[in-house]
# Entry
Amino acid sequence: AYERRFPTCPLIPMFVASDTVSEYKSEDGAIHVIERRCKLDIDAPRLLKKIAGVDYVYFVQKNSLNRRERTLHIEAYNETFSNRVIINEHCSYTVHPDNEDWTCFEQSASLDIKSFFGFESTVEKIAMKQYTSNIKKGKEIIEYYLKQLEEEGITFVPRWTPPVACKSESSTCHPRRPVSPAINIPESATKEGLSSKEILTTSSSPSEPTAGTPDDKLDADYIKRYLGDLTPMQESCLIRLRQWLQETHKGKIPKDEHILRFLRARDFNIDKAREILCQSLTWRKQHQVDYILDTWNPPQVLQDYYAGGWHHHDKDGRPLYVLRLGQMDTKGLVRALGEEALLRYVLSINEEGLRRCEENTKVFGRPISSWTCLVDLEGLNMRHLWRPGVKALLRIIEVVEANYPETLGRLLILRAPRVFPVLWTLVSPFIDDNTRKKFLIYAGNDYQGPGGLLDYIDKEIIPDFLGGECMCEVPEGGLVPKSLYRTAEELENEDIRLWTETIYQSASVFKGAPHEVLIQIVDASSVITWDFDVCKGDIVFNIFHSKRAPQPPKKDSLGAHSITSPGGNNVQLIDKVWQLGRDYSMVESPLICKEGESVQGSHVTRWPGFYILQWKFHSMPACATTNLPRVDDVLASLQVSSHKCKVMYYTEVIGSEDFRGSMTSLESSHSGFSQLSAATTSSSQSHSSSMISR
# Structure
């Protein structure tokens, strides 16, 4: 089929004619070398041709076919203007070392323009344009000649075999039976990313369907329709990995689209892709993930309070998932359901995403293998930094990254508030670099401007809560009622404890004996974060700064109270001789926290030095209209004094370098976020934010 383009080809208008300069054939027929002088009518401006003094350009092409080694080498160079412009091209076709039905294609080309009458730049553009157009037409040309051969009844070419010499005149020579057809893959077709299986029919019956078995599926139409652009080597990796699974894996074999995701996640390193794919298949079998959509019904609390759902598709045809994270009570969901149920729900969302990708591929007639996620952060606050919730989020990210690679096509983060950089700093290290590049982050109403939401989603389907006209059926979320929370015993029995033994510490607070935690800050603009529950009593939370270190902490003996402190400690750091304003300063307004409340907050430090977090006993104020205390105040005071105050707390420091590094990655995600990040990381003033959950 490739040879039929000579001496001229009507499908290549610029290829006017060719003459054979020399030709060589070996005696055994294994080697065939032919050299041609090709006449080309280059699509160049008439003025340029007039200045150059030529109407046609001549190239010399040498084709070397070695039937013994099953290789084809093509060399071409320009004859015209060879002293001014040097063009060299080399193409080679060889048999794949692991599968002789596949042909490997390699190509290299160079263009060196030394001088061309002052039109060097123009000549370079013309050369690149011609080269590109020839590559694009390659598949069309080879299919034309293949069809021509089929019409002539030529569907099979026997492989070359060495001639057998007869020992005597009386002996009968039987020609050897051909093993398989020769595979001469045309240059242009392989450039388009086609394997040898797509070019030549190896079946003796040309009418046999090519998609009958998995091994025969990878024809050009199948690739274009379901898989997208693949190079021959990428297609080779896909077929090899699938065949290996069919031979070794006992169980359901994933579809080509899913295998391809794992290959892309590891840059088509077949060994690395096989490792993570096998781990994922084992995980899917252990957790019965293949049946999750048919057998698992989400609890009602998830259906009511999980503020996420599918909503049409984006401009590229990808399924669109909307998550109103700022309206979601992550702490309430974890306390009511536990981490496992939340994880299972996220897995069902991903499985539904895979199903929707298949549906959209059929609807739009092109491969769609990923979805777009729109995350609205309106309402995000320090409540979302509740550490068990963050830990659950990190585990979900870890599981999804390992088992659903290359499924997130784009992540649009809208209305990011000032607290978002802190959450991003905690989460971003666990997100794959390739995934992180797909994030687009908008602060405030930036998503409504140029480069915003309209670039990715049609106006008709922008949700109503973002100013659009489309009614979005995603639940609005809200606080999960505490009546739905699991008891400690239930959490213990179901092995979904909230890490209180590992990351939280308990402390007792007494009247006149606060509990204090020392945090040393070396670099300004570091971030101190806290998360605590007031288990008993009411307390006042303060943050102080001192340039000098306090004395080693003293554990209160509680002798003045004549009461021991089971299950909690009490540490005091601020010396009684220290004076506020001289030895230390208050960097935040006092925060009164009542029994049963959960508090999450952060503080961007202004100076280096020593910061002290303090939980102090809160005295009940007397009634304003009388000197006598109210009955409720007396009862509350008695209750607190008899049981003391107790807090469960967790603190963490995000280093200045890490925090600024995460801000840099945010700024690279979208320039519109730089204004927000600059305000958040400013070292000229300190910022703090606390959120109380009742």
